[in-house]
Every structure is written in C-alpha cells, then in structure tokens.
Specification:
Elements: H1 7-21, E1 26-27, E2 32-33, H2 37-50
Antiparallel strand pairs: 1-2
Length: 65
C-alpha cells in the first residue's frame, strides 16, 4: 500500500502536533489556541499543501448524514 502523504506533509503534521501539545498554534482568524488533535493535523496538512507537498485535496464540506 502506498503512503497517503509525502515526507514534507508528515513533517508538517508532526510539527503541528508538537506545537499543539505546547499550546502554540492558533486557529484561523479567531486566534484561539488549538486543542483538538484533528485541528492540528488539518493545520499541518494545510501548510504542506501550500508548499506543494504530496497531500490529497481536503474533504469538501461537513455533510454528516
């Protein structure tokens, strides 16, 4: 099975998780501290995407049926 994310993306997510544990990253425009691991992962993947890393596109919308 092929890896889902590239090395750069893994590094970004790892850094975002580390920062979350130390209370450093802030979310979007609200500037609130990130406390949810899923938020930290999303931030890491988003940063990796901006740098052109191998990351699948984000899931569209939040449709939970």
């Amino acid at each position: 099975m092929a890896t889902k994310y590239g090395k750069k993306a893994q590094d970004k997510v790892e850094r975002a998780m580390h920062e979350m544990k130390h209370g450093e990253p802030e979310s979007g425009n609200s500037h609130q501290k990130v406390t949810n691991p899923k938020q930290a992962i999303a931030i890491g993947l988003s940063e990796a995407r901006k740098e052109g890393a191998k990351v699948p596109p984000p899931k569209s919308g939040s449709h939970h049926r």
